[in-house]
Amino acid sequence: MKTVILSDGGWGSALSLVLAENGHEVIMWGPFPEYLQEMAQTRENRKFLKGIKFHDNVVFEPDMAKAVQDADLLVLATPTQYLRGVLEQLKNVYSSSRSALLVNVAKGIEENTWLRISQMVKEFLPEAPYAVLSGPSHAEEVARAVPTAVVAASGNIEYAEKVQNAFMNKYFRVYTGTDVVGVELGGALKNVIAIAAGVIDGMRLGDNTKAALMTRGVAEVGRLGEALGGSAQTFAGLSGIGDLIVTCCSGHSRNRYVGEELGKGRKLDEIIQSMNMVVAEGVRTSIGAYHLARQVNVQTPIIDEIYAVVHNNFSALDALEKLMNREGKTEF
Hints:
Elements: E1 2-6, H1 10-21, E2 25-29, H2 33-42, E3 44-45, E4 49-53, E5 58-60, H3 64-68, E6 73-76, H4 80-93, E7 101-104, H5 117-124, E8 130-134, H6 139-142, E9 148-153, H7 157-167, E10 172-177, H8 180-202, H9 207-227, H10 232-235, H11 238-249, H12 254-263, H13 268-274, H14 281-295, H15 301-311, H16 316-324
Parallel strand pairs: 1-2, 1-6, 2-5, 6-7, 7-8, 9-10
Antiparallel strand pairs: 3-4, 8-9
């Protein structure tokens, strides 16, 4: 198939390797032509995935219209908060792509609108076939062919199976499902919990604390996700507990890193600036998660405290004390 990665980031670069190794034609488009040219020359994404060489089958095209022409698969790998601009451009050229299947691989909730990515896509391309690919899958490991398992979900199971066939190989295993809402929310909300896990690491609180946080985080994500239309089973799967575990524990996790630095006492603006354009989706997603919880009247104490720490300069220590001193409750 002709596959197009709409992003110049690390995750899109890692997935370009998977698709190229599976024999597909791969084109990468990005918003910065100069950087695309640099990647074409060096055969490496030195900014976001240093040390990994692109496959010979990967080519770079700064003109979106040329990139998507006659495409079979369009991979939406742009971070959530920048995706609206990409969709605006894509709307004008999508007709040349033979109704290509859109595969979202980003994880987040849009700030201000609080929309999931499938809802954003619906605004611009309401008739386009859509699937989401998500799960515990750091780009740094996928690019090195570390065994990984993810899930592809679509309201039309044939679209999910098409994604499965395109991406699956001996080191990248793809399951299928139909719960788009649950898969999208699992991937987005776990980033907020990962910031909390990082705060615990930064405060050097220990294994007991982190285990409790992750367990209650799973419960919280599932509770909110179900209220928003997802399936409980999904939040117990790869895009739920699986992605939450890896994001809370991995040294590759940008969201955990942000939390760790907050736990050490650093200011958010300073942390973000030090990351050199690498995006931690949970920072902005925490806003949408906080407001969505209020829309559906669901209690989300961990999300609430992370929102307060990240956006209202609330002390991490005070947030922990507030969580621990809540009134007693039943576990389930």
